[in-house]
Design a protein that fits this description.
6 strands, six-stranded antiparallel beta barrel, mainly beta, Thrombin, subunit H, 1 helix, single chain
């Protein structure tokens, strides 16, 4: 008996996100220099994503706020691993990364699921 083809599942996720998703940016701000006067460098990493509104039944105004987005982020050509300090640029608007979960059976990251919150 052969094992499940996780690479195939990853390829399927990448194909579906590319077909039904949109381009976005994963924005990373890095601070260098002394703490009292840091220099911030902003790097944008191109990505493919699907951004969905949360179903109203999941909005509890504690963990998930009205306006939060559930984002499926493709691993295809993504140069970095998403981090909580990153920002997502969706349709030109910057969103904070609230939580990150990876679907990664057997250590193969199929896609990233991110809770993103728009900046007021």
């Amino acid at each position: 008996m052969t094992g499940f083809d996780y690479a195939g599942a990853r390829a399927t996720a990448e194909r579906l996100i590319k077909r039904f998703g949109q381009p976005g940016k994963l924005r990373r701000v890095t601070a260098t220099g002394p703490d009292y006067d840091p220099e911030q460098t902003v790097e944008d990493y191109a990505c493919l994503l699907v951004a969905l509104d949360y179903d109203q039944q999941f909005v509890d105004n504690t963990l998930i706020l009205s306006g939060d987005r559930m984002v499926y982020l493709s691993t295809q050509d993504l140069a970095v691993t998403p981090d909580l300090s990153d920002r997502l640029v969706i349709d030109g608007a910057e969103h904070a990364v609230i939580s990150i979960t990876s679907l990664s059976p057997a250590g193969t990251v199929v896609f990233w699921q991110i809770q993103a919150r728009g900046q007021a």
